[in-house]
């Protein structure tokens, strides 16, 4: 039986109450961890909790979730020509406080982390009278059962000891890549499980290696015969001299000419450092994050040499797919009309240095004798500055205005046939 079918069977209905009050019970998320802890080829079980102990996984999740949580989510209204930014109650929920228990930054960090680790980000849409949205409540996706009934998704979860069922219209469901109709694909279970398992095994080996005094296991060869008491004394003296913090690296004592070629490999022989460096790059590849952005600077990036180009590449190739899924889910669940829509403002992440921004704004304001495409107040808004009186007019360069006037003056008069 598959994990998903087992999960649906367990949480399809309210579980029976235990006969004894103090009987041992498991939280649904804990049971999910128990069922979903799949051992990797290295023998280490990989799940959401163990994966976050790997610094590369933690850095990737923190980087993507933090970047998305820092972006303002603006609400726009479509017009006949262009669009206009508007403020309504949903703006407050998406940018300041989705529910009384968390701020918007924490809310989006939690949802994006859930999407990356478990494959799905879920939040309940609590509606008031007339369908207005009162709050957005984050849900633990591990403790939510998702079923498809008559081409619609049904969500079941427990809150305060009561099992609740919600239709798909009342749940923000942001799946990761590879959505199969009910669930998205988890990065750590489908793409990086073996890489994370190997990283955990290498870290465990490193910890034991340094705990034993950074010495490989050795064998002491003695030409004659020794009693057990002499062997124990020799091992104790060796451990006191060369053992680690817990003196756990006790040597083997070989007597009467017994020979042993090899006991364990040293850290250098096992290429531990190279293996751990490769795992960082492999995990970053699974999350779509350039290794240099999580501290792996051994090799140069192919996304450009400047900070501006690297930031643009991160937004375009890493964040854009996640942002599109979030925007489309909010639009179809919260508005139900093409008149209003939300869009993340990524201008802050795409900014260059001061000189690059100044050159861009100069051209945008028509400073190179070309028609302007931005007003002074639009530029000031991007720089978080207050508007100026008369700053909403597009500038017309002098040469361009003269050229237009010249064309109008020399334009031959129109004639009509009589």
Short account of what is shown:
By secondary structure, the protein is α+β, with helices and mostly antiparallel strands.
Could you characterize the architecture of this molecule?
The chain has 418 residues and is an alpha+beta fold. Helix content is 42%, strand content 16%. The strands form 5 sheets. A 3-stranded antiparallel β-sheet has the order 4-3-13. Helix 4 packs parallel to helix 10 and helix 8 runs antiparallel to helix 10. The longest helix has 29 residues.
Write the layout of secondary structure elements.
Blueprint: H1 3-10, H2 28-36, E1 38-39, E2 45-46, H3 48-51, H4 55-69, E3 73-78, E4 83-86, H5 89-95, H6 104-118, E5 120-127, E6 133-139, E7 144-149, E8 152-159, E9 162-167, E10 171-175, H7 187-190, H8 193-211, E11 219-221, H9 228-242, E12 252-254, H10 272-287, H11 307-335, E13 340-344, H12 347-350, H13 354-364, H14 376-382, H15 398-409
Parallel strand pairs: 11-12
Antiparallel strand pairs: 1-2, 3-4, 3-13, 5-6, 5-10, 7-8, 8-9
Which key terms come to mind for this protein?
418 residues, alpha+beta, 3 domains, three-stranded antiparallel beta sheet, 13 strands
Class by helix and strand content?
alpha+beta
- Describe the strand arrangement of the main beta sheet, using strand numbers: 4-3-13
Average pLDDT: 76
Overall spatial form: flat
Strand/helix succession: HHEEHHEEHHEEEEEEHHEHEHHEHHHH
What's the end-to-end separation, in Å? 89 Å
Biggest sheet statistics: 3 strands, antiparallel
Proportion in helices: 40-55%
Beta-strand segment tally: 13
How much of the residues is beta strand, in percent?
15-25%
Taken together, the total number of domains comes to 3
- Unreliable stretches: 10-27, 403-408
């Amino acid at each position: 039986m598959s994990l998903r079918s087992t999960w649906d069977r367990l949480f399809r209905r309210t579980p029976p109450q235990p006969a004894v009050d103090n009987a041992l019970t498991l939280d649904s998320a804990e049971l999910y961890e128990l069922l979903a802890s799949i051992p990797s080829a290295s023998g280490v079980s990989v799940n959401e909790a163990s994966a976050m102990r790997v610094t590369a996984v933690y850095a990737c999740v923190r980087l993507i979730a933090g970047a998305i949580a820092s972006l303002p989510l603006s609400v726009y209204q479509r017009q006949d020509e262009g669009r206009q930014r508007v403020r309504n109650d949903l703006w407050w929920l998406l940018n300041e406080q989705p529910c009384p228990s968390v701020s918007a930054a924490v809310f989006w960090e939690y949802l994006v982390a859930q999407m990356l680790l478990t494959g799905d980000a879920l939040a309940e849409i609590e509606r008031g009278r007339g369908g207005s949205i009162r709050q957005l409540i984050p849900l633990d996706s591990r403790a939510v059962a998702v079923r498809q009934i008559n081409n619609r998704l049904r969500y079941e979860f427990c809150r305060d000891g009561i099992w609740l069922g919600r239709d798909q219209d009342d749940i923000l469901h942001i799946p990761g890549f590879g959505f199969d109709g009910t669930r998205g694909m988890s990065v750590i279970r489908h793409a990086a499980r073996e890489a994370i398992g190997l990283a955990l095994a290498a870290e465990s080996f490193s910890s034991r290696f340094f705990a034993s005094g950074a010495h490989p296991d050795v064998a002491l060869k003695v030409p004659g015969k020794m009693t057990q008491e002499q062997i124990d004394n020799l091992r104790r003296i060796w451990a006191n001299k060369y053992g680690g913090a817990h003196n756990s690296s006790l040597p083997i004592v070989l007597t009467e000419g017994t020979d042993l070629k090899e006991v364990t490999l040293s850290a250098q022989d096992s290429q531990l450092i190279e293996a751990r460096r490769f795992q960082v790059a492999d995990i970053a590849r699974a999350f779509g994050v350039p290794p240099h952005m999580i501290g792996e600077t051994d090799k140069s990036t192919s996304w450009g040499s400047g900070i501006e180009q690297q930031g643009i590449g991160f937004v375009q190739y890493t964040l854009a797919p996640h942002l599109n899924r979030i925007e489309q889910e909010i639009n179809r669940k919260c508005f139900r009309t093409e008149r209003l829509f939300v869009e993340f403002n990524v201008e802050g992440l795409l900014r260059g240095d001061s000189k690059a921004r100044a050159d861009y704004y100069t051209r945008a304001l028509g400073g190179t004798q070309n028609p302007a495409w931005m007003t002074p107040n639009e530029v000031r808004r991007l720089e978080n500055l207050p508007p100026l009186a008369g700053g909403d007019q597009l500038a017309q360069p002098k040469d361009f205005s003269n050229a237009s006037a010249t064309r109008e003056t020399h334009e031959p008069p129109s004639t009509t046939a009589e």
